[in-house]
Task: structure prediction
Amino acid sequence: MSANKPKIERPNIFKTWRKMKTQQDPIFANALRELKERFGTEYTHSRYREWEEGTRLPQTEVFNYILYGVLNYYLAKNGMVDRKISQIIKNCTLNNI
Result:
């Protein structure tokens, strides 16, 4: 007898960015528009879901932008000073490959 195991939702940088952005503005399309304006590429909801699911990854620049946003938001929210935040982010970003 095999039991269906419930799928466990694991957070990741992309799910966290979506959560953060929709707390600021409930319309996620505006966050995708922000990416388009920043990088000149239109990202769809389905493409973003692929990032969240891990079936595809964005360009390094987009990943670093999302990482910067998440780290900056949550570290500042937890009382860390800007200088330390900047150093942490600098040490965490991906190099262009």
Summary: The chain has a mean pLDDT of 90. The radius of gyration is 15 Å.
